[in-house]
Design brief:
This protein is mostly helical and about 375 residues long. It is built from 16 helices and five strands. It is globular. The mean pLDDT is about 95.
């Protein structure tokens, strides 16, 4: 894109690196408009939210009577899932089963955080370890596919394993740390945020570039969890953080004081791969800064000023030497030489459109959800 066509929102910092962004007369982007029109009026963290949250809690408790656990929570050690666990146990009074997926990239800090949190809350942890050979094969397949969605394998492992475990153990309620407060500005799809687990896409990429069969890798298609699990098996996703005050820096301080939990430099830094991918691979290979969406969410929810966001995004989160080491670490971990990873980095960028996919059908489904008011974040479909 030419410099002359560059535009940035005058309220948040979303810009034309999202090719489909549109601006109104004031220069506000459609993410901002969506936030003020669709999210904010329906988002209550005062007494109204509390009453709603306790109603949900009562329902979950009642249905879970006689079971070992009344709900399941997937934890990563990051702020959102840590606080969601606290809210579920201490505010809602639930008996959650805590589930963690180890896809091989945990930072020590993430593991430490999970241990401290669960010690403090006296909760047990169930960890599912993904077969590393399969994980690695899928990572390399995705790198070779040259699409921007490089966190697809990890995300798929996390959510698929969680949903499968819940269904297998007859746990109906899945509690997540998803929230408007820090995620109301959705990452544009073009920035590698493919909308959901599309197993058609995964299988096509793996068929072309994979070397070993994926025998144990958890893979649950978007239509399976959004339709079959939800409407036929009754699985419900609960997002408690949308009903309580959730100011990121206050919550980090609270978790530190209460559990000696340690905050991360930036969102998604729990996983060494995600940190590398979002801080290095994405901005430098594709020109997409996921922080732009993260900071814009904080601007819309009055947790950060636009000036502070512009200042912070003008430089990387961590120093250059660190990223050089991480490049080497990621290459070694994937059994690639630094040269091989560098070649993949320099390869021609592609999009999911180069592979078989169900994107059109997912778009149709999302449109229906939007019309029914079940999805309020901005999806362009
Ligand atoms: Zn905006």
């Amino acid at each position: 894109m030419g410099q002359e066509n560059y535009r940035i929102c005058s309220n948040c910092i979303m810009d034309t690196s999202d090719p489909n962004i549109v601006f109104d007369d004031r220069g506000w982007c459609d993410y901002c408009l969506n936030f003020y029109k669709n999210i904010l009026p329906n988002w209550h963290t005062d007494t109204r939210g509390e009453i709603e949250l306790m109603k949900i809690a009562d329902k979950i408790k009642k249905e879970g009577k006689g079971k070992n656990h009344d709900c399941i929570i997937g934890v990563s050690g990051g702020t959102d899932s840590s606080y969601a666990t606290y809210v579920a146990k201490e505010i809602m009074g639930l008996r959650p089963l805590i589930f963690h997926v180890d896809a091989g990239w945990n930072t020590e800090q993430a593991v430490g955080n999970i241990e401290k949190l669960l010690d403090g809350l006296k909760l047990d942890l169930y960890t599912e370890v993904i077969n590393w050979q399969e994980m690695k094969d899928l990572h390399i397949s995705f790198l070779k596919s040259q699409i921007a969605d490089q966190d697809f394998p990890q995300d798929m492992a996390f959510f698929s394993a969680l949903y499968k475990f819940a269904i297998k153990h007859n746990i109906k309620y899945v509690i997540t740390g998803a929230n408007y407060s820090t995620e109301c500005c959705r990452e544009p799809e073009e920035w590698g945020a493919y909308p959901g687990i599309d197993t058609t896409l995964v299988r096509d990429i793996h068929r072309r570039f994979g070397k070993i069969p994926l025998k144990t890798f958890p893979m649950v298609d978007i239509f399976t969890y959004k339709i079959y699990y939800k409407y036929f098996l009754g699985m419900e996703i609960v997002k408690p953080l949308n009903y309580v005050p959730y100011i990121k820096k206050d919550i980090e301080k609270f978790l530190e004081d209460r559990f000696h939990w340690e905050k991360f430099v930036h969102k998604h830094h729990e996983s060494r791969f995600t940190r590398f991918f979002e801080d290095y691979w994405m901005p430098r290979k594709f020109g997409y800064e996921k922080r732009r969406a993260h900071f814009s969410s904080l601007i819309m929810t009055s947790q950060m000023t636009r000036d502070a966001a512009l200042e912070r995004i003008s430089k990387p989160e961590l120093d250059e030497q660190f990223y050089v080491q991480e490049f080497e670490f990621v290459a070694n971990k994937l059994d690639l030489s630094v040269k091989e990873l560098q070649r993949l980095f320099e390869g021609e960028n592609k999009t999911y459109k180069s592979y078989k996919n169900k994107r059109y059908l997912i778009g149709l489904g999302t449109r229906v959800m939007n019309i029914l008011g079940l999805e309020k974040r901005l999806f362009r479909c």
